[in-house]
Input
Amino acid sequence: MWILWVGAALACAPRFSVRLLDDRSQALLDLPEGSFAHEAVRLVPPPTDRFTVQTSTGAEARSRAEAVGLSEAQQLRVAGMRAAETASLAREVGAGLPRELFQYTLGAVALQRGDEAEALRWFSSVRGLP
Output
């Protein structure tokens, strides 16, 4: 008769510690140690190209943003409203624009001139549109 003496069973991988076999329910309740910063870097490869710096003034950036989705005639009217000396002249230049564009641009012109109450009135009227 052969007697085989078996000692404690060891885990089968170097990263799988014996502690995990001792108390499985407790082992699953505790999160393993880790570093979010270390793991986050490994999520995606770093970019190979360098970012280019775009330099422009605020007015240039605003003009480009305002031009998106507008026809050339609408772009000219918005630019004319921005350049108008008075609010009444801006209203005349913007006549014929879609109502939401007209009201928003009048609010922007008022804000540009420092008339916050008037700007708020125009911006609020845009919010009230259907």
